[in-house]
Amino acid sequence: MPKSRAAARSLVERDRGLVWHPYAALNGPAPYEVTGASGVRLHLRAEDGTRFEAIDGMSSWWSAIHGYRNPVLDEALRKQIDQFSHVMFGGLTHEPAVRLAEQLVNLAPEPLAHVFFADSGSVSVEVALKLAVQYQASAGRPRRQQFLALRGGYHGDTVGAMSVCDPIDGMHSAFPNLIPAQLFLQRPPKATLIDGRLVTDDVAVDSWVEAMEETILRHSAEIAGIIVEPILQGAGGMYVYAPRCLKALRRVATQHGILLIFDEIATGFGRTGKLFATEWAGIAPDVMCVGKALTGGYLTLAAMLCTAEVATIVGQSAPGVLLHGPTFMANPLACAVASASLGLLNGWESRVSRIGAALATALAPAASYSFVREVRVLGAVGVIELDSPVDVVAVTRAALERGVWLRPFRNLVYTMPPYVSSSQDITNIAEAIGGAIAQVHG
């Protein structure tokens, strides 16, 4: 198009029909233009020219836990740029990658001891799945090629990751001939946070555990690994489930020589009120994936961690190596800012606890709405579940008019605010959610 024509059109007009956005049509609802961001606030402009200053209730899809233009993270990037921005990781190493790996191993539950850096959360899941298959083959169990996952789970949009997402109610049912067939357990019984404990129906948990044991016994010769989002299923419905189910999975996986893989991409680094959600159950997986908040929302980076026992057996396989190697593996800029982001986690417990308490108080009135099915809070996660699909466009605009950016989905209006949000910010977020759903769905 002629330059003059491009200059005469708004950014949103130029965007529509040209750029795909996540799970949106090319000519779908108009996006909002970001004109700036600082602290916990986004500066936005709508297609009609209306400007908004909005608290980011999403932490940019759960990643920007320290807010925008954080001076510590900005400086980490500037310092690394002055040295080098990228080098291949094949045959080379560098300080940011090694330092970050050391930090991750120090933070992760024992006995996780080795790190593989990946481009994104989905890719880290792919690496974990490949690792499990290589592990089983090297251990003399080459028939073990399948995975056991949970209904309601979500692990990413790449092919292997899609295969372990919910096969019926998930977002990937359009690709039945592309995605490998896996095994699935029913979603575990839900849990409710009461006085700092996750409480559930013990009879329902007993029944679930029995069904799980029967499934694994029947398919143990085929299963390479069990993959779950511990405690909180994110994109599958912000669903909180019983820690005892994780303990049972740990016990049975060990019994049958199956790798237990925890996808902590959304739940890691304090989001659920524990540094890692696995701590709710007091256990550790054989393999763990982390991402999202890892870099504080600055750059895409994820990691897969595994135990020394797993790494040793994979190293004894015929190839002798883990068969994966992304071009931008351990990108120095991403590793440098991730290292700085982990350094900012000091004191996260009190911040997340304060956010959770404020959300519980401020979201509670919405439970009385006739169209609200449930209000739930876990750590720095607040969820209002409606009894029908949410009008995403209308609720988003109604919340913006109240000074808050939200991105609802399915029948859920939820928030995962940055950890640096003030108590007043959290109150504003909750009141905007309540006001928006009352305006649109009341």
TrEMBL record:
Keywords: Aminotransferase, Biotin biosynthesis, Cytoplasm, Pyridoxal phosphate, S-adenosyl-L-methionine, Transferase. PROSITE patterns: AA_TRANSFER_CLASS_3 (PS00600). It holds the Pfam family Aminotran_3. SUPFAM superfamilies: PLP-dependent transferases. Pathway: Cofactor biosynthesis; biotin biosynthesis; 7,8-diaminononanoate from 8-amino-7-oxononanoate (SAM route): step 1/1. Pyridoxal 5'-phosphate binds at residues 121-122, 263, 326-327. The keyword Hydrolase does not apply. The modification N6-(pyridoxal phosphate)lysine is found at residue 292. It is found in: Cytoplasm. It catalyses: (8S)-8-amino-7-oxononanoate + S-adenosyl-L-methionine = S-adenosyl-4-methylsulfanyl-2-oxobutanoate + (7R,8S)-7,8-diammoniononanoate. Substrate binds at residues 61, 154, 292, 325, 407. GO terms for biological process: biotin biosynthetic process. GO terms for cellular component: cytoplasm. GO terms for molecular function: adenosylmethionine-8-amino-7-oxononanoate transaminase activity; pyridoxal phosphate binding. Its main location: cytoplasm. Its EC number is 2.6.1.62. Its cofactor is pyridoxal 5'-phosphate. NCBIfam families: bioA, PRK05964.1. Catalyzes the transfer of the alpha-amino group from S-adenosyl-L-methionine (SAM) to 7-keto-8-aminopelargonic acid (KAPA) to form 7,8-diaminopelargonic acid (DAPA). It is the only aminotransferase known to utilize SAM as an amino donor. Belongs to the class-III pyridoxal-phosphate-dependent aminotransferase family. BioA subfamily. Homodimer. This is Adenosylmethionine-8-amino-7-oxononanoate aminotransferase. It comes from Cryobacterium lyxosi. The lineage of its organism: Bacteria, Bacillati, Actinomycetota, Actinomycetes, Micrococcales. The gene is bioA.
